[in-house]
């Protein structure tokens, strides 16, 4: 994929839309170590420094005679609905396809050719200790970039559009969570009936069972809590743990330590932030966490399918004041919630 060339040629994210018909450039033009020609041109405002362009790109490299071309990056293979975008900046150095952007308007397509010799020379100057190069980066080879400009926006407009898109995505996620919650609740009710479990339900939809009462006040937001835990799916598949079924801490990389995190700081999934706040030091409990309070559709690993209900057996080892230094992310099952 595109990462193979990013560190060297800064090809960035990538793709090509159709070149279509319309006026085309003739002879190749040259700018900052790259050759280019306009494949399709539409009248309109050219991209300028400070703008943000959405684009598609396909990058390939011609290898030895008789050998197929090697695809370096293709933004058509990116996540559905994702269009790459970059700010237009003054290009420093030679051999970067971005140097062509200021000559293009929205709807334009261009072919950019970059000599691998130019890139090799750049590496020698800027990264003299770089000894190992990608197998396609050989003298005489040529990179071809097919570039299509989708839109050109001011920095301010691009920021507004991004915020609007994020708000829309957040709304969609909330709607999906709202639709999933009754499904998960029904599954939990059936599970409790089948296994003769009497669990308490909170207003959010979290269920819990206190297996052993602790002492003192319950943990609250802003405190550091240290935990033992076993995480399983509702089907009983264990996906993470730092203790065994007997409550003994497991040896993880030569360390037997409870997991510590700042409560109410968004460092863990919502079901943990809420559920652990129901417990005091020494308490043992089982948390039944509906998927909207866990990872929802964003599965963190193959062991946790999208929309999985999670079950945690937990024990509060300690509760104390929050240290000033930031804490690392937690383990898999109750780790940091994926970024929205």
Helix coverage percent: 10-25%
State which percent range the strand residues make up. 25-35%
Kindly report how far apart the N and C termini lie: 24 Å
Shape: elongated
Q: What's the average pLDDT?
A: 85
Major sheet: 7 strands, antiparallel
Q: Any idea how many domains?
A: 2
**Number of H- or I-type helical stretches:** 4
CATH architecture of the largest domain: Roll
Q: What structural class should be given to the helix and strand makeup?
A: alpha+beta
Give the strand tally: 16
Rg over alpha carbons: 27 Å
Q: Unreliable segments (pLDDT under 50, ≥5 consecutive)?
A: 1-25, 331-340
CATH class of the largest domain: Alpha Beta
What is the CATH topology descriptor of the largest domain? Answer: Chitinase A, domain 3
Order of helices and strands: HEEEEEEHEHEEEEEEHEEE
Structure in a nutshell:
This protein has 340 residues and is of the alpha+beta class.
Q: Can you describe what's shown?
A:
The chain is α+β, with helices and mostly antiparallel strands. The chain folds into two domains: 2-153, Roll (Chitinase A, domain 3), CATH 3.10.50; 181-321, Chitinase A, domain 3 (Roll), CATH 3.10.50. 19% of the residues lie in helices and 29% in strands. The protein contains four helices and 16 strands. It has helices at residues 6-9, 116-126, 155-195, 270-276, and strands at residues 29-31, 34-40, 52-62, 70-74, 85-87, 109-115, 142-153, 200-201, 207-212, 215-218, 223-233, 238-241, 259-262, 280-281, 284-289, 310-321. The strands form three sheets. Strands 1, 2, 3, 4, 5, 6 and 7 form a seven-stranded antiparallel beta sheet that branches. Strands 8, 9, 11, 12, 13, 15 and 16 form a seven-stranded antiparallel beta sheet that branches. The protein has a two-stranded antiparallel sheet with strand order 10-14. The longest helix has 41 residues, at 155-195. It is elongated, with a radius of gyration of 27 Å. It starts with 5 loop residues before the first helix and ends in a 19-residue tail after the last strand. Mean pLDDT is 85; it is low at 1-25 and 331-340.
């Amino acid at each position: 994929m595109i990462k193979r060339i990013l560190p060297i040629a800064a090809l960035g994210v990538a793709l090509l839309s159709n070149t279509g018909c319309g006026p085309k450039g003739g002879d190749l033009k040259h700018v900052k170590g790259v050759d280019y020609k306009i494949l399709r041109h539409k009248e309109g405002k050219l991209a300028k420094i400070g703008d943000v362009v959405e684009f598609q790109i396909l990058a390939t490299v011609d290898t030895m005679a008789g050998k197929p071309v090697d695809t370096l990056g293709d933004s058509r293979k990116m996540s559905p609905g994702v269009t790459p975008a970059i700010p237009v900046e003054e290009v420093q150095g030679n051999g970067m396809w971005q140097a062509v952007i200021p000559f293009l308007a929205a709807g334009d397509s261009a072919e950019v050719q970059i000599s691998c010799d130019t890139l090799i020379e750049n590496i020698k100057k800027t990264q003299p200790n770089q000894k190992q190069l990608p197998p396609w980066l050989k003298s005489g080879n040529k990179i071809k970039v097919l570039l299509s400009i989708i839109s050109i926006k001011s920095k301010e407009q691009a920021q507004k559009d991004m915020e609007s898109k994020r708000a829309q995505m957040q709304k969609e996620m909330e709607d999906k969570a709202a639709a999933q919650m009754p499904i998960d609740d029904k599954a939990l009710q059936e599970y409790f009936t089948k296994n003769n479990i009497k669990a308490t339900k909170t207003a959010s939809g979290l269920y819990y069972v206190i297996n052993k009462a602790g002492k003192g006040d319950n943990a609250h937001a802003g405190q550091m809590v240290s935990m033992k835990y076993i995480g399983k799916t509702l089907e009983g598949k264990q996906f993470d743990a730092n203790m065994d079924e007997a409550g003994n801490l497991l040896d993880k990389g030569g360390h037997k330590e409870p997991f510590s995190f700042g409560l109410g700081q968004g460092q863990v999934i919502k079901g943990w932030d809420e559920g652990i706040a129901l417990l005091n030091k020494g308490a043992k409990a089982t948390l039944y966490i509906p998927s909207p309070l866990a990872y929802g559709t964003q599965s963190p690993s193959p062991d946790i399918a999208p929309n999985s209900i999670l079950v945690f057996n937990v024990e509060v080892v300690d509760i104390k004041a929050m240290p000033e230094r930031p804490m690392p992310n937690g383990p898999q099952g109750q780790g940091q919630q994926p970024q929205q």
